[in-house]
Structures are given as C-alpha cells and as structure tokens.
Amino acid sequence: TTANAKLEWRNWRSGTLSVVGLEAGGRWVKIWVVVAAAASNIGQFTSEQAANAFQLEGMAESGWLPKCFMHRSRYNTPLVGLGTGLVIILALSSSDFVSIVDLLNG
C-alpha cells in the first residue's frame, strides 16, 4: 500500500495527524501540528473548567448550592468552584478512561 492509502481518514488512529503534518510539510510542520493540538487541548480544558466554576457560582446564587460557591477572588474568578473542579479531576485522574465513561454514562 502507498502512504496515501494509509492516511485515509477512516484509518486514522492516535498520532495520525502528526504523520499527516510530516507527510505534507516535513519535520517543522509536524512539530507545529503537535504544538497547535496541545495548545488547543489546554485552551479547551481551561475554558471548560472556567465555565463549570461559573455555573457552580450561578447555582449558589439561585440557592441550589451553599453560598461559599459565590466567593470570588480579587481577579473576579470563582475560587470555590475552581477548587471543586480541581478536587474532582484529581480524584478521577487515577481511574482509567473506560471507568470514567461508565461513571458518566451511569
């Protein structure tokens, strides 16, 4: 088979995008693809955590959660909500992916 047949999107697995970058533009394009994907994942994770923290704050304002979730830092960020997300992430970080998906899908 040729390299193009291996890069058909139906055959993609983890790491294939960097191979496409290598094939399309060489070593530097591969590096940029990996760095861009990492930055994108970090940004998506950070924005999701911020949205969750503000949602917890909103629930506290509506009376669904304790008032401590309404506390904000001097930078106007909901500290207790961010801390709660951190604790949950650290607790789940020792689990394997399938167990987390099973937990979320109940």
Structure description:
- The chain has helices spanning 3-6, 16-25, 27-61, 79-92, 97-105.
- The longest helix has 35 residues, at 27-61.
- It has 106 residues and is mainly α.
N-to-C SSE string, H for helix and E for strand: HHHHH
> What would you report as the Rg, rounded to the nearest angstrom?
20 Å
Average residue pLDDT: 91
Structure annotation, total helices:
5
Distance between the termini: 43 Å
Low-confidence stretches: none
The proportion of residues in beta strands is under 5%
Shape: elongated
Helix content: 55-70%
Number of strands: 0
Largest sheet: none
- The computed structural class is mainly alpha
Give the secondary structure arrangement, pairings included.
Elements: H1 3-6, H2 16-25, H3 27-61, H4 79-92, H5 97-105
Helix pairs in contact: 2-3, 3-4
Defining traits:
106 residues; mainly alpha
How is this structure best summarized?
The chain is mostly helical and 106 residues long. Helix content is 68%, strand content 0%.
